[in-house]
Design goal:
Blueprint lengths: L1 H14 L23 E4 L2 E4 L63 H10 L1 E17 L5 H4 L7 E14 L10 E12 L20 H4 L20 E11 L6 E7 L10 H4 L12 E4 L13 E9 L3 E9 L20 H4 L1 E11 L13 E20 L20 E20 L7 E10 L10 E12 L2 E14 L2 H9 L1 H4 L9 E14 L2 E11 L10 E11 L1
Antiparallel strand pairs: 1-2, 3-4, 3-19, 4-5, 5-6, 6-7, 7-9, 9-10, 10-11, 11-12, 12-13, 13-14, 14-15, 15-16, 16-17, 17-18, 18-19
Length: 561
């Protein structure tokens, strides 16, 4: 309880911190009566402003050279997207992107003026560093060695991840070539101590719902559990692609070819992305790791082709076709990200498609300045193979049972072909404080569904929460709360009931769901520095009722430069 009291005090201290200089740009108040005739000079060109009730300088046409260099690193998976005047935006209204400021960078080897000239010439180099830590406050997992497994166990865990990015824009080649972009990024994930948190146990792993999934990769996709080998740590190539964008809102219409992580652009929501627990970023990649029918254990990017297109004022369409091989080993075979595999007969392809209907300030309708909202519907299809979460080729249980204590190797597991899932998202600003664009309450909801019972694990789920931007006199701080309800399929239930880890333990009781409640406070101390204390409460860990629930405290630091 002493630890819990300290955590609570820390939350309170941040929320009640003395006023600091607002990181929100103070926009020049413009008389709406005269805004249509007012001009602003940029790159020797006069551009009309968009009439709006917030008195904000919004251009009717966006010059790519005027987009912010400041990268939005408070949510790591949105690294390459510039920040807008509202942190919870999903960047579907580029007019609201903040102009670059002289103090928004932590590091620079040259003067701001010189770096701006380099950027305007077409070269941008940037980075982001994240440090996550977690500590168990309360864990009721059984001390039975068959459940707890062999060590090492930790009461705390810390992981870090570094991302470096380099973008070369087409203006570097020619002023007449608009919208071209060549992108490279590199990651360096590291686990800072050995072994999983004590609450994880060490052998609880029914059908992919094991150690890593208690708290998941809230360590910025690094993870550290019994099934994450230390060889997976270290530097690696992440993304490399070329794209060409077009249209009045440069960046919303584009085609792209190369190695690209789909969840940087698909299933995008800053509100849900603030959460650390893995489930809040669902849905994830399917099919690509045959043993789990889920995505890989580490940050990776497959080769593929992407297309995004605006249709009218409200509709935005996106699609991606990519290589279905994500390294079935979970990362060991391609731990440096240097290889791409093209055995389409064996590993197939993965297809993602998504349609977003938007309104309020997200709409491209210049007269629509209501509270922003969007509805999103998407789906995935994987044509390659995965392995059954229950049976061998002969119809036997492949996992250890009382009659077969050793189980069967993965090579004997039943091979299945094809996998799919569908998802829905909704997000809306529910309340906006008077005379403010960014401050207010946003609600969000997600759902995913997969019809398959013998593939994967948490193939169905419901997720939702709230986020309030602007706490006291801290305009850019966000208080958030969310709950994730993950329903497992019949294969996972059957496995959990019949494996020896349950049948040989007195009082074993299996659940058909695992829940996670998370509350956190994301404080932007500087344009480049974020700190987030948070609490997790995990219900039915490992889909077991008899293991007790888990209360974990965490704190997260993110640094962009």
């Amino acid at each position: 309880m002493k630890t819990l009291s300290l955590i609570t005090s820390f939350f309170t201290l941040i929320a009640l911190n003395a006023p600091v200089k607002s990181e929100i740009r103070q926009f020049e108040q413009i008389n709406p009566q005269n805004i249509a005739s007012k001009k602003i000079i940029n790159d020797d060109e006069k551009e009309d402003l968009i009439d709006n009730p917030f008195g904000m300088k919004l251009y009717k046409k966006i010059n790519p050279k005027n987009l912010s260099q400041k990268k939005h690193c408070d949510v790591l998976r949105h690294l390459k997207v510039p920040a807008t005047s509202r942190r919870l935006d999903t960047y579907m209204r580029p007019e609201f992107i903040l102009s670059r400021r002289k103090n928004d960078q932590l590091l620079s080897t040259v003067s701001n003026d010189s770096r701006q000239k380099i950027y305007e010439s077409g070269i941008d180099l940037y980075g982001c560093y994240a440090l996550d830590s977690a500590a168990d406050l309360d864990s009721n997992l059984s001390s039975d060695p068959r459940i707890a497994g062999e060590g090492p166990h930790q009461y705390w865990q810390a992981n870090s991840q570094l991302i470096l990015g380099l973008d070369i824009y087409s203006r570097f080649v020619s002023d007449y070539w608009k919208g071209g972009q060549l992108h490279f990024s590199f990651t360096w994930p590291e686990a800072l101590n050995s072994g999983p948190l004590y609450s994880y146990g060490n052998t609880l792993n029914p059908a992919g719902l094991g150690t890593r999934q208690y708290h998941g990769y809230f360590y910025t996709d690094v993870g550290r559990s019994r099934d994450v080998n230390t060889d997976m740590q270290g530097p690696r190539v992440f993304e490399y692609w070329f794209q060409n964008a077009w249209g009045k809102n440069n960046g919303l219409n584009y085609w792209r070819i190369g190695a690209s992580n789909p969840w940087i652009t698909f299933n995008k929501s800053i509100a849900s992305g603030l959460h650390g627990f893995w489930a809040f970023n669902e849905p994830g990649i399917i099919g690509t790791t045959p043993s789990t029918a889920n995505g890989p254990l580490i940050t990776t990017a497959p080769m593929g082709i992407s297309l995004a297109r605006e249709v009218g004022d409200h509709l935005h369409l996106k699609g991606m076709v990519m290589n279905g091989y994500y390294d079935p080993s979970g990362g060991l075979e391609n731990k440096r990200g240097l290889d791409q595999y093209w055995d389409l007969n064996e590993y197939g392809v993965e297809i993602i498609y998504e349609a977003t209907y938007r309104g309020g300030t997200y709409s491209q309708d210049k007269t629509d300045f209501g509270k922003p909202w969007f509805l999103r519907l998407g789906g995935q299809l994987h044509t390659g193979h995965s392995l059954s979460n229950t049976y061998t080729n002969s119809g036997e249980y492949f996992f250890p049972t009382a009659s077969n204590p050793d189980g069967y190797p993965n090579s004997d597991r039943e091979k299945l072909w094809g996998n799919s899932q569908y998802y829905f998202m909704a997000e809306k600003m529910l309340y906006r404080e008077p005379d403010s664009y960014n401050r207010g309450l946003t609600g969000w909801f997600k759902a995913k569904y997969s019809p398959w019972e013998r593939r994967g694990s948490t193939t169905k789920g419901l997720y939702g929460g709230f986020a309030y931007e602007g706490i006291g006199k801290r305009d850019k701080d966000i208080l958030y709360l969310g709950y994730a309800h993950m329903l497992v399929n019949e294969g996972v239930l059957e496995r959990s009931r019949n494996q020896s880890l349950c049948t040989e333990v007195v009082g074993c009781e299996v659940s058909d769901y695992q829940g996670a409640l998370e509350i956190g406070y994301n404080a932007q101390l500087k344009p480049y520095l974020f700190i987030t204390p948070k609490l997790y409460y995990v219900v039915n860990p490992n889909v077991r009722k008899d293991l007790g629930n888990i209360l974990t405290a965490g704190i997260e630091f993110r640094l962009s430069y």
